[in-house]
Amino acid sequence: DKKDKKDKKEKKSKKASKDDDDDDGSDAESKGSGSDDGNNQVTYGDEDVKIVIKDIADLVKSNGTKLTIDLLFEEVRAQQVRLEFDDRLRLFVVLAALFPEGSMDAEAVVSRKSFVKYFVTNGKLSFADMMWSIEAYLDTYPKALKGYPMTLKALYDQDMAEEKELLAYYNGDQDSPGFEEAKKSCAPFIKWLEQEDESGSDDSDEDSD
């Protein structure tokens, strides 16, 4: 009798333990699905982003030379809050609006450098984040790839991209949408930077001697 009672007790204990495990699993699943449902953040490629770009581009066009950083920021920020997108996507939106339909080139970047710098600084974007935004632009508007080496040089000349940052970035693997094509396009400029870097190293070695 004692043995039967012991067996029944062990079976009951195992069943309770299994029920607890099942409950834990269902709780985890419900938490996971709940977090997914709550994630409404807009991301690159979403239709909403295209609509925002068009709206902001219309604002840029209608204001022409009277466009101010404050006005642009106010409008873009309102859309960002509404759609909950991050600051690197915000910079992409700004680039797409300032340089519509792939018109970003060296001259255009220099003419709008204060706008670009502001959104990089305000968003506290890292160099990699800034490059993500630029390459997302190139991915969206491939026609801008042709002039990308000179665009990148303009960023370099305007102290928005440092030599070491560029070399480290393009000698690595990145996850931006247009990285591979951008890397191919700007290869001549990166090669030139590498030669400049080597030349600078040689000069410093001679000075130390």
Features:
single chain, 209 residues, mainly alpha, Serine Threonine Protein Phosphatase 5, Tetratricopeptide repeat, 11 helices
Written overview of the protein:
The protein starts with a helix and ends with a helix. 75% of the residues lie in helices and 0% in strands. The protein has helices spanning 2-37, 47-63, 69-83, 87-98, 106-111, 113-122, 127-140, 148-157, 163-170, 179-185, 187-208. The longest helix has 36 residues, at 2-37. It is an all-alpha fold. The chain is built from 11 helices and no strands. The protein has one domain (47-198): Serine Threonine Protein Phosphatase 5, Tetratricopeptide repeat (Alpha Horseshoe), CATH 1.25.40.180.
CATH topology: Serine Threonine Protein Phosphatase 5, Tetratricopeptide repeat
Integer tally of domains: 1
**What is the ordering of alpha helices and beta strands?**
HHHHHHHHHHH
Q: Overall pLDDT, averaged? A: 85
Describe the main β-sheet briefly. Answer: none
Question: Which structural class matches the secondary elements?
Answer: mainly alpha
**Radius of gyration over alpha carbons?**
27 Å
State the low-pLDDT regions, or none: 22-38
Percent of residues in helices comes to over 70%
Choose one word for the global shape.
globular
CATH class: Mainly Alpha
Q: CA-to-CA gap between the ends?
A: 96 Å
Q: How many beta strands in the DSSP annotation?
A: 0
Q: Which percent band covers the strand fraction?
A: under 5%
Second-tier CATH architecture: Alpha Horseshoe
Number of helices: 11
